[in-house]
Amino acid sequence: MPDFEEIASLDDFGSADRLEVFVEDTPVLLIRVQDQILAIEDVCTHDGQPLTNGCIEEGAIVCPRHGARFDLVTGKALCMPATKSIRTFEVEVRGQKIYVGH
Ligand code: FES
Questions:
Q1: For ligand 1, atom 3, which residue shows the shortest CA distance?
Q2: Domain ranges of the chain
Q3: The domain over range 4-101 is classified in CATH as 3.40.1280.10
């Protein structure tokens, strides 16, 4: 059972669909998909680059560097050149506050 830490508020997104935060020392990208908030480690497993500005298509984020795709829910690497999953985090929204489990 993870510990949940208050990490942001829904207002912090403004009009954006994503928000960069840190969970302990790990860069994490919060992504708003319809009415759900998802959280992934913001580091591509191919070459350690940030996924921050990657396109989001069909439930996956595309690494802007070499085009690897990762499932936003499971973190699974869906195509080369990445072969290892990215870490994902549980998210709870309580009122306006966003909590991330770690
Ligand atoms: S750094 Fe992401 S695909 Fe290469």
A1: 66
A2: 4-101
A3: no
